[in-house]
Amino acid sequence: MPPSTPERGTDQTAALTIAARPELTGGRRIGVLLSHGFTGSPASMRPWGEHLGALGYGVAVPLLPGHGTTWQELNTLRWTDWYAELTRTFDALRAEHDAVVVGGLSMGGALVLRLAADRPDEVAGVMVVNPAVATRRLDVKLLPVLKHLVPSFPAIANDIKKPGVDERGYDRTPLKAIHSLIQAWPSLRTDLPRITAPLVYFRSADDHVVDDASEPLVLDGISSTDVTRIALPESFHVATLDNDAPTIFEESAAFVARVTGA
After folding, report:
1. Angle made by CA atoms 64, 70, 74, in degrees to the nearest 5
2. Are 97 and 59 in contact (CB under 8 A)?
3. CA-to-CA distance for 228 and 27, rounded, in angstroms?
4. Which of 19, 37, 49, 67 is most buried when burial is the number of CB atoms within 10 A of its CB?
5. Residue 187 contacts by C-beta under 8 Å, 6 or more apart in sequence?
6. Strand, helix or coil for residue 228
7. Catalytic residue, candidates 36, 41, 180, 207
8. Which has the closest alpha carbon to 208: 159, 169, 174, 173?
């Protein structure tokens, strides 16, 4: 992968790639794949990726299809499109690195859990921040009908406690696209026992996007024996840009080093 040197004026919503520096990681090339969430962009993951890149890890943060453009375009795309881009990026990392750890925020968390279930022998570790695999909201049951009547709901982006921070997400939530995400959840939950990689689960104390339905399903569903839960007491949903971001960065760096032997 070519190195990425972020400069002033860089498009924060663009994909991010940072070349590995094995001289900083014990001579081994260690890759980290990070995935942003639904209606978001790599902007929500960029500081996290840059922190890990500075430590010598090869980092890839793809721009998922339909993101970074318009919510109307996102409404023409589905879970299979986002997962295809994630797996393409993962395969590229695997080809160039000795080990790869995956991480994701919200829908990105669901995507990397899907990847860890499908490729248990290839994922060295899993890091999720407020992952979404279920919801207690009752209105989702109406989505099969509503998505044909109205194109979008109000935005879910920018649930951030820290003042003055912008996730660079969409101002509307496209219904056909989010229904596709929700339709992918049941099979993912069924396959959670296939996940055996070490996992670290970051959870915000006050999340206005992902409710408390997902956490027990993930933590009780996976087969991993190396599992750590880390609370984020001062953050809302987009914790990677919020007050507890330093905790995520530091704990994830330690996790990657430990599970890869870097």
Report:
1. 50
2. no
3. 27
4. 37
5. none
6. strand
7. 207
8. 159
Active site residue 204: no
pLDDT score of 144: 77
- Annotated active-site residue 235? The verdict is no
What residues form DSSP beta bridges with 113?
none
Coil, strand or helix at 129: strand
Mean pLDDT by 10 residues, the chain (262 residues): 39 94 97 97 97 98 96 97 98 98 98 98 98 88 76 86 94 94 97 98 97 98 98 98 98 98 82
Integer Cα distance of 26 and 41 in angstroms = 32
Question: Catalytic: which of 97, 204, 237, 242?
Answer: 237
Tokens (6 digits) for 221? 């569903």
Within the chain, what is the greatest distance between any pair of CA atoms?
56
Is 207 marked active-site? yes
Closest residue by Cα to residue 123 from 140, 104, 137 = 104
* Residue type, position 212, single letter: D
Tell me the pLDDT tens digit for each residue of 142-197: 677 777 878 788 888 899 999 999 999 999 999 999 999 999 999 999 999 999 99
Which residues are CB-neighbours of 85 under 8 A, at least 6 positions away? 62, 64, 65
Place of tokens 């024996």: 225
- Tell me what pLDDT residue 5 has: 36
Give residue 39's region: left, alpha or beta (phi > 0; psi -120 to 50): left
